[in-house]
Write a structure and sequence with these properties.
Layout lengths: L1 E10 L3 H12 L5 E4 L3 E2 L4 E4 L14 E11 L5 E10 L6 E8 L2 H17 L9 E8 L5 E12 L2
Parallel strand pairs: 1-4, 2-5
Antiparallel strand pairs: 1-9, 3-7, 5-9, 6-7, 6-8
Length: about 160
Amino acid sequence: MKITVTWGIGAGHTKLSSFDKALWNAGIANCNIIPLSSIIPPAAKIEIQKTNIQNDPNNFGKRLYAVLSVNSTVRQGESAFAGLGFRLRLKNKGGLFVEHQGRSEEEVKNKIILSLTDMVKYRRERYGKIQYKICGIECKNQPVTALVCAVYQIEPW
């Protein structure tokens, strides 16, 4: 199974339209997103790259299973950052995602590192290095949204 980590930012007249624009820029608009918790299945291979699921008209309205990190702001001069971090198990594969938000890339990165460091302490397996994808946008004169999404699977109803 391939899991694609994609990302997007957007601005719009409303928070909702900025979210939709971020989905569009991440390549996953026009789907019904079904949120998942943060466990990566053992057979998964993770790729950090933009996807273009929305470019296939046959995907319109389909179910999209995903781990999603979203952050928005409407305050002029404030930034919205979102990120997904992950660690994979060394022997049995699979692993853990964490989703964090903040006002700076450094804030989100620190939260990801702290969470994943804590979460592997009480698990029996050994884990590899921490990896992550973070994006952000500054609010100038419209609401803005940043999002990072781990796309697991798309399927019809």
